[in-house]
Amino acid sequence: MKKILFLISFIFLFAAFISPTYSSDQKKPDYSGHFGDMDTDGNSLVNWGEFKKYFPHAEENVFKDADGDKNGSIDHDEWHKFKETQGYSHDHKG
Q1: What's CA 65's distance to the chain center, in Å?
Q2: Which of 16, 18, 55, 69 has the most neighbouring CB atoms within 10 Å?
């Protein structure tokens, strides 16, 4: 009986580790865009609509994280601070 319980436990644990939910190979979304490319209306601010158009995979919480002063838009400096927190370098292009 102990062998059967051990085998069942092993199977469940093995299944959990090979499940995509537990995969460490999942890529994090790419937020390395250039600010000037996102700012389609040229007002030096990126709103949620512009952000979502540039990053169709984005969820609003990501935009809110990048909006450091919580005013509903992202400016150039906020964007580069956000990129740094995501591990992207400041490349002076956008």
Answers
A1: 10
A2: 55
